[in-house]
Amino acid sequence: MPAAEALKWIEVLEQNPCVAIDASIVKRGAELSERYRISYWDGAVIAAAEAIGATTLYTEDLAHEQSYGTVQAINPFIAL
With a threshold of 0.85, does the pTM exceed it? Predict the structure, then answer.
């Protein structure tokens, strides 16, 4: 990919929130994992969502409409 095109993609991606993984995210991910009996990785994703103030997490890996702390999991593949 030419550098100019790559830079355009980077600019598009910069418009989306991004969370740096730090000790607080790791700790909160572990806490959520224990509390809800989910994988650490799912807990870390929820912790990152909490960190940016997201209230909805679209995922097929967690229970549909279940609240995990302040974040509610929604499975976008479930037919309504």
Answer: no
* Residue 67 exposure: Cα atoms within 13 Å on the Cβ side: 3
Asked whether the beta carbons of 59 and 73 are under 8 A apart, the reply is yes
Integer Cα distance of 36 and 38 in angstroms: 6
| Span 4-19, pLDDT tens digits | 999 999 999 899 888 9
- Angle of helix 40-51 versus helix 23-36 axis, rounded to 10: 120
- CA dihedral sign, ordered 66, 70, 77, 25: negative
